[in-house]
Design brief:
The complex is a heterodimer of chains A (254) and B (168). Chain A is built from 15 helices and no strands. The longest helix of chain A is centred in the first third of the chain and has 45 residues, at 51-95. Chain A has helices spanning 5-9, 13-40, 51-95, 98-105, 108-113, 117-123, 126-132, 135-141, 144-150, 153-160, 163-173, 176-186, 189-200, 202-210, 216-239. With 168 residues, chain B is mainly α. In chain B, 50% of the residues lie in helices and 6% in strands. Chain B contains six helices and two strands; from the N terminus they run ααααβααβ. Chain B has helices spanning 11-14, 23-55, 67-88, 93-98, 112-124, 141-146, and strands spanning 100-104, 148-152. In chain B, helix 2 (23-55) crosses helix 3 (67-88). The relative contact order of chain B is 0.19. The chains are: A mainly alpha (254), B mainly alpha (168). The interface between A and B is large, with 39 and 43 residues.
């Protein structure tokens, strides 16, 4: 809504001139009233004989009647005021840029400082507010992954959970036999055993510990034989001018 | 040989298992077998002499076989030894010592006839073994004729599957 203050400032001067004339008349009338009052209360006459007192005595019945009329008129005015004020205020507010006015003339920070938020919070029925909130909808919009990323769940569990108690309770409730069966059904034991055998070279350990194979001397003789075979093979290949092969014939005889 | 087979073979020798054995290894094995047969012949001679001594202690004389008897006995003993050994386990004592095994063309154990023919062939023409040195697939003359082969196999009999070097 555009501000109307500049428009007000640009009202025609005729209205202000008229107001000035009225004010001048009122000032002159007030001076005349003060002069008349002073003239009606001469100090040399006793109080009851002063014109003002005499005039007051004469005018008192009129005053009473006027008071009655004034009271009635006041009541009527109040009634009309009650009826008309909202309409008038509404019409006025429609034409006033209240937001601009508040923003321009009110120090909102200062106003908020003066507000006792603790008292307001104390009066607030939080339970009623929560009852009106759709928690499911809020939870649906919640980025749980981001929240979990910010939490050190491991540390929280280690600090707050009695793992001994949890494990004990779990062991009581769990059918260990079924658990083991399920785990074994899902585990490729053959692959694990093969991997372990690769790592620890069990065959080598058995060979060294049982002595079922030939002694180290025999193995040395065999290895020397293999080396001599290879040497002869290479020499023959060189003599016959053919490409030497380290694995003659492969594993399949033909 | 599967990757995780329980093979009590030292790690450096695992890669050569199943490959054709060379001439040196086979010659050493053959010499050991010859020595074994010689020892057996001497033992047999001693046994025969002892038996004759028990029968005729007074007129005992050491047996004096002719050269042909010696040759034929040696040949018989060697043929029987090689035939039984190759047929039974695919290897003689010399083969076992040097870690080699005799197999047929299919990778399995040689049959009785094949083993006997191979033994006779080696007895008749021992020099055929030297062809291993020049043959591309390390085969002797006997291997070429009888379609057999000798491969490295350091595993004991208990650790050997039924067809160790069969085609996959």
């Amino acid at each position: 809504m555009p501000s109307r203050l500049p428009a007000l400032r640009r009202e025609p001067t005729t209205a202000l001139d008229g107001l000035d004339v009225v004010i001048g008349v009122v000032v002159i009338a007030a001076g005349m009233v003060r002069a008349a009052r002073k003239a009606l209360e001469p100090s040399f006459l006793p109080e009851p004989l002063r014109p003002a007192s005499v005039l007051a005595t004469w005018l008192r019945p009129l005053g009473r009647r006027g008071g009655v009329v004034r009271t009635r008129l006041t009541l009527e005015a109040v009634q009309r005021y009650t009826v008309l004020l909202p309409i008038v205020v509404d019409r006025v507010l429609v034409h006033l840029p209240l937001t601009d006015l508040v923003r321009r003339y009110v120090d909102l920070d200062e106003l908020i400082k003066a507000v006792d938020l603790d008292a307001i919070a104390g009066r607030l029925d939080v339970d009623a507010v929560v009852r009106r909130v759709d928690v499911d909808e809020i939870a649906g919009r919640l980025d749980v992954e981001a929240v979990l990323d910010r939490l050190d769940l491991t540390a929280m569990v280690l600090e707050r959970v009695d793992l001994q108690e949890v494990v004990s309770a779990a062991l009581v409730r769990v059918d260990l036999q079924q658990l083991v069966d399920t785990a074994l059904a899902r585990v490729d034991l053959a692959a694990i055993v093969s991997h372990v055998l690769d790592e620890i070279d069990l065959a080598e350990i058995i060979r060294e510990s049982t002595g079922t194979m030939a002694s180290d001397t025999v193995q040395n003789v065999r290895m020397r034989g293999v080396s001599a075979d290879e040497l002869v093979r290479r020499s023959a290949a060189r003599l016959l001018q053919r490409q030497a092969r380290s694995a003659p014939g492969g594993t399949i005889p033909s | 040989m599967s990757r995780h087979e329980m093979v009590p073979v030292p790690r450096p020798a695992r890669s050569i298992q199943g490959q054709r054995a060379g001439v040196v290894t086979r010659l050493v094995a053959a010499l050991v077998d010859a020595a074994v047969v010689a020892v057996a012949l001497v033992a047999g001679y001693v046994c025969v002499a002892g038996f004759r001594f028990l029968l005729h202690p007074r007129g005992f004389q050491f047996p004096d076989p002719t050269i042909w008897q010696g040759i034929s006995g040696n040949a018989l003993m060697l043929t029987a030894y090689l035939t039984i050994a190759w047929r039974a386990g695919g290897r003689t004592y010399g083969n076992t010592l040097m870690g080699v095994r005799v197999i047929n063309v299919g990778g399995g154990r040689v049959g009785w006839g094949q083993a006997a023919a191979r033994a006779v062939a080696y007895l008749a023409f021992p020099a055929g073994l030297l062809w291993v040195a020049v043959d591309l697939r390390s085969r002797s003359v006997q291997d070429l004729v009888l379609r057999t082969a000798v491969v490295y196999d350091w595993r004991p009999e208990s650790a050997r599957p039924s067809s160790a070097w069969a085609a996959p």
